[in-house]
Amino acid sequence: MSDDVVADVTRGQLAGGVDHHESTLRSRSRGPFDGGPDMIQLLDPEGQRVLHGGAQEYAHHIDALTDEDLRGFYRDLVLIRRFDLEATALQRQGELGLWVSLLGQEASQIGCGRALRPQDHAFPGYREHGIAWCRGLDPMRLIAMYRGVDRCAWDPKEFGFHTYTIVIGNQVLLGTGYAMGVQRDGDVGTGDPDRDTAVIAFMGDGATAQGDVNEGFVFAGVNDSPIVFFCQNNQWAISEPNERQMRSPIYKRADGFGFPGVRVDGNDVLATYAVTKEMLDRARSGQGPSLIEAYTYRMAAHTTSDDPTKYRFSAEVEMWKLRDPIARFKTWLGHEGIADHDFFVAVDAEADELASNVREATVTMGDPEVADIFDNVYVEPHRQVEDDRAVQAAYAASFDDEGVA
Amino acid sequence: MAVQKMTIAKALNAGLRAAMEKDPKVLIQGEDVGKLGGVFRITEHLQKDFGEDRVIDTPLAESGILGTAIGMALRGYRPVVEIQFDGFVYPAFDQIVSQLAKLHSRSRGAIKVPVVVRIPMGGGIGAVEHHSESNEAYFAHTLGLKVVFCSNPTDAYWMIQQAIETDDPVIFYEPKRRYHEKGEIDVDVPPARDLFSANVVRQGTDATVACYGPMVRTCLDAAKVAEEEGSSLEVIDLRSVSPLDIDTLTTSVTKTGRLVVVTEAHSFVGLSAEIAAAVTERCFYSLEAPVIRVTGWNAPYPPSKIEEHFLPDLDRVLDGVDRALAH
Ligand SMILES: Cc1ncc(C[n+]2csc(CCOP(=O)(O)OP(=O)(O)O)c2C)c(N)n1
Ligand SMILES: [Mg+2]
């Protein structure tokens, strides 16, 4: 991509030239997308270790990691991207009803997910496949949901990972309430690393407009609840850019709710890990909530149903490609001698194997039983549901009889 | 060139355009309705042609969308808001029920809130959770709101304009799985009926089938098959479920003696129950059989792989008709 194109993008040309009518409203330009001087960054897009935006105070969390931990991050990043690409391909081939890609947001999610401890509890949206991965959820559970075969059929207690939530923002209040429960159980500030518990709730940039999200901030603030609000600012809410959702940076809003807010380079797995670790520790030790804005980019369409060419220029996507989260980390690992060629080759092979396993398991996945419709509607039996279960069964059986006759 | 072939989606787009051309106070707001033209493209090109002041891409907050639409209506505008999917209207429920529905009566008639809330409704598109709901009963149960469904391109074109001209708030349901069904519209011939009248879309003598929205096509298809099998069904597209055109229903049932009500929504405390009760009260002595309901099952909308077993289809409608005719 030429520098001119980048300059055009960063000058905010993308926002202009849409309508023929002069608006009486203020319109804001887009970009420059550099995250600004406050953004915490430990690894720049070229793979150089840096200390941007006050990163100094977080860097010690990286020093505490072993080389094996770091290689593990890389493996996670590559595998989750490969899984995601395979799921997108499966959707294109008609094997899934829908897929919601995390392409470009791998470092935000792996850095964050690896900072969680087993007793912590995460409240995802619908794009948190990397968090699910870190929580040990079988990715096929996600595939089953987007294939239309199942609901969110996992027990959140088993994984410390709540159901996916599609209604924007709902999960933020649930997470806040869960954190209030953790407080009441006395599972904060004991100093026991296996007991002290933090909650993390995920949301997108668009979601920050939603009432539930703001109410979650208020409740967590007044209760000093042990929760981290993790906002992946991928710059877009379907077709609407940040400018249509907000007038001040997301991380700065925390101040108004009475807790700290940090913007981190969401394409830098080290920075995302370090900042999330810091804020989770803070919550576990009883110092209350915080807001992390992971500054990143949605490289794919909003979902497989979306056509982003209708509302954004490819130059913007091209520019973000240069900040790829995996490329920079690989460069750094190689340069530091933490990982070598053989390791990278082995991870790629493992990714291919994962993809082929996912494909196989998807195309051979059975359909649900129709009678499942009536299961789990209530904990206890409900007369009208049970009546319909019987009516549906008799109706279905009437076709069997026809077949026999 | 007055007669045009259009899909329901295009007809809605054309109807919105006509309303905006006619009345400068009409404006549109919702998520992704501007530059993208909505996820179903119902508002496509309207922002380009009418500007950002009249077609507003809102922040992602349904309570905000509704509350500010009401505020703009108080200032003399006629907002048409889009709720992206049926299952996302609930954050706006409070504004709809507490303000939109009640302001006229609360102000003893001083205030009118002519807001139209467009909701793509229903299943059958292979979607994930919250994208396939039939939640009309909540709104029909809320006095102060009018609730209508379009089922074909001609109605889509005219009903959206009539809804916008209505001084009461209107919940305007669009059968999303039918968006791409085509029909001929004569845009020069004014609408045949007012917004709140039912339409007898097929004449018949043996039983009346009452339906609305996405089920109209299903019931018409069923009536064709029934005819081949020797029974004559009268199909009524109710179009409005609040108010309910009870006279058209009772006239038909008095003639046929049988009523089958078909809804995508489940039966328990739903519109089908209201229709059955209202007709039974008025036509008890004409009825040859109990009113039969063919509806979605009393259970949450299932994963899409089995949605076809949840939704009433041609066979289930005919099964219901058979049960009515068995008496
Ligand atoms: C209450 C509600 N309204 C609308 C939608 C439809 N919708 C799904 S995702 C989305 C945009 C979300 O944007 P953002 O919060 O930035 O998250 P991202 O998808 O970019 O990760 C919208 C409007 C929804 N799921 N829930
Ligand atoms: Mg976003």
UniProtKB/TrEMBL annotation, chain A:
GO terms for biological process: branched-chain amino acid catabolic process. The branched-chain alpha-keto dehydrogenase complex catalyzes the overall conversion of alpha-keto acids to acyl-CoA and CO(2). It contains multiple copies of three enzymatic components: branched-chain alpha-keto acid decarboxylase (E1), lipoamide acyltransferase (E2) and lipoamide dehydrogenase (E3). InterPro entries: Alpha-ketoacid_DH_E1_comp (IPR050771), DH_E1 (IPR001017), THDP-binding (IPR029061). Residues 1-35 are annotated as: Disordered. This is 2-oxoisovalerate dehydrogenase subunit alpha. Residues 78-353 form the Dehydrogenase E1 component domain. Gene3D superfamilies: 3.40.50.970. The keyword Oxidoreductase applies. Belongs to the BCKDHA family. It catalyses: N(6)-[(R)-lipoyl]-L-lysyl-[protein] + 3-methyl-2-oxobutanoate + H(+) = N(6)-[(R)-S(8)-2-methylpropanoyldihydrolipoyl]-L-lysyl-[protein] + CO2. Its EC number is 1.2.4.4. One of its GO terms (molecular function) is magnesium ion binding. It is an enzyme of class 1 (oxidoreductase). Its cofactor is thiamine diphosphate. Keywords: Oxidoreductase, Pyruvate, Thiamine pyrophosphate.
TrEMBL record, chain B:
Pfam families: Transket_pyr, Transketolase_C. It comes from the Bacteria. SMART domains: Transket_pyr. The keyword Transmembrane does not apply. SUPFAM superfamilies: Thiamin diphosphate-binding fold (THDP-binding) (SSF52518), TK C-terminal domain-like (SSF52922). Its EC number is 1.2.4.1. InterPro entries: THDP-binding (IPR029061), Transketo_C/PFOR_II (IPR009014), Transketolase-like_Pyr-bd (IPR005475), Transketolase_C (IPR033248). Its cofactor is thiamine diphosphate. Residues 6-181 form the Transketolase-like pyrimidine-binding domain. It is an enzyme of class 1 (oxidoreductase). GO terms for molecular function: magnesium ion binding; pyruvate dehydrogenase (acetyl-transferring) activity. Keywords: Oxidoreductase, Pyruvate, Thiamine pyrophosphate. Gene3D superfamilies: 3.40.50.920, 3.40.50.970. PANTHER family: PYRUVATE DEHYDROGENASE E1 COMPONENT BETA SUBUNIT (PTHR43257), PYRUVATE DEHYDROGENASE E1 COMPONENT SUBUNIT BETA (PTHR43257:SF2). This is Pyruvate dehydrogenase E1 component subunit beta. The gene is pdhB.
